[in-house]
Amino acid sequence: MRLSRSFGKTLRNAPADAETASHKYLTRAAFVQQVAAGIYSYLPFGQRSLTKISNIIREEMDSAGAQEVSMPVVQPRELWEKSGRADTYQPPLASLKDRRDRDMVLAPTHEETTTFMAAANLESYRDLPFNLYQIQTKFRDEARPRAGLLRVREFEMKDAYSFDKDEEGLDVSFQAMAAAYHRIFNRSGIDVRMVEADSGPIGGKDSNEFVLLAESGEDTIFVCSDENCSYAANAEKAEFKKPAAEPEQARDLEEVHTPGIKTIEGLAEFLETPVSKTVKAVFYAPETSTGDEIVFVSIRGDLEVNETKLRNAMDGAEPRLATPTEITAAGLVAGSASAIGLDADDGPRSRAKITSIVDDSVVESPNLVAGANKTDYHFKNGNYGRDFNGDVVTDIAMASEGDACPNDCEGHLVAHRGVEVGHIFKLGTKYSETMGATFVDEDGIEKPALMGCYGIGVGRLLAATIEANHDDKGMILPRAIAPYEVYLAGLNTNDETVVAVAAKVYEDLTSAGVEVLYDDRDVPPGVKFNDADLIGLPLRVVVSARGLKNGEIEMKRRDADDATMAPLADVVGAVKAALL
Question: Is 87 exposed, middle or buried (0-12, 13-18, 19+ CB in 10 A)?
Fold first, then answer.
């Protein structure tokens, strides 16, 4: 491609809201153009890179035994109502009506449609296993799209869905996809970590993210400091060994006056006790609550609530902090509340629908200081099981850097920023049961298929690769996903010999199968060099009058500091060798 004929122009300045390297350089290098918040057009350079990434994905999916299909972006809402996600998926589904006044949605993902497809074709265990994938447009109406292609509303995604007859088969499918993902990311030029993750609105029992460690990432990843330990998890999922409480005999409950004390830190200081010897009450409500539902959370005072874990404890309902009005209406005393007395005849549960969720740290800690449920008073020596109980007891605590690794090792958690580039899930029978994707097994018994789900954002992978491969001049694109392999520049375009030789080099390289972007513009050399660095193709080849005097061309790899000279007579061989 001659640059003079290529659509799109490089820009000197990045958009004012661009914060990440990928956002700045993809825009300046004419790879993408923003149409609206979180919605982008791909210009020719960007589309070529996107196509190359898609081809890598297709090759690895096909190699792993998956079969490509194509499913619609616009789907009937009734499919989502059947799965139970029509009103619970976050962000909320983008909806519309067709000309028959039928409710439709723009698909953010395709579990429903794939299960619908499987249900129509699945009969016997002999039909299993199979894996269906597509590379197709998705739409998620994100509240805060940011960072260019890293957080968008409309995007290209590879999503695959496996169907198996049993847990062993699902494990095989899951591991095959994990291995394929590692190959995809390696071929795309990035090093990723597979970490434990929360399944979020997709659902399922187990999931793993593939994360590129990068300061520009919006995710926090915890990795064990012990080099012999493989533990790694997203902050939403991360577990840790909670500091053990000192064993002691349960003492009698004692009410104490705590005038003006409203915080855990102030309470601990006033009573001269460690923060870890207190129990903190935090009040939430389901996002959809009309005001009469309260989730009463009890957690040890030295820990913070992980709202993702809390959401899971609430069976997927999105938590929000309860308002002061809701707290007062439920008969709860902010700053002096605890689960002690929650079930009394005239207690808070007699006034409101209250669910008590208790972090497991509280269960294992004796003689805690807790609210007395009246202003300016607290209890000493509150004990779980004797003085109060919970409807749900589970881990809802947020991990922090320095916490002890949950594995049997001596390591601690180290925090990193990261970009999620892929996510794989074990869905189990979540969708197959509700949507009728069943089969008859060897004994003639009808069973739901076990499903897995596997996603990669194609544009996000391009952006993540740039986050990992750039400098202060521009992108440093890996050969496998660069729109072209070589940036060929002829200098001094008023010199007919230079122009003729550069054109001949372009033709020879192209004929030899090398992808060349030929900068034939009549612009100063500095402009060409700056654009070459900005666009970031793997190799820059320069034809100049000075070099031709010695029968040479100049070559410089984008990831190298210095240029080298090569004989013009063997330009094809020299270029191919430099690209290896």
Answer: exposed
Interhelix angle for 458-468 vs 44-63, to 10°?
Answer: 110
Phi, psi angle pair for 431, to nearest 5°? -95, -35
Domain 3-71+108-238+414-467 grouped into CATH 3.30.930.10: yes
List the chain domain ranges.
3-71+108-238+414-467, 254-394, 486-579
193: enclosing H helix or E strand: strand 193-196
Helix axes 44-63, 167-188, angle to 10 degrees: 140
In whole angstroms, give the CA distance from residue 367 to residue 578: 70
The amino acid occupying position 447 is: K
Backbone φ and ψ for 530, nearest 5 degrees, come out as -65, -45
**Residue pLDDT, tens place only, 481-504:** 999 999 999 998 889 999 999 999
pLDDT digits over 177-208, tens only? 999 999 999 999 999 999 998 876 666 678 99
Give the CATH number of domain 486-579; options: 3.30.420.10, 3.40.50.800, 3.20.20.60, 3.90.550.10: 3.40.50.800
The CATH architecture to which 254-394 belongs is Alpha-Beta Complex (3.90)
Contact status, residue 339 vs residue 280, Cβ threshold 8 Å: no
pTM: 0.87
The burial class, CB within 10 Å (0-12 / 13-18 / 19+), for 259 is exposed
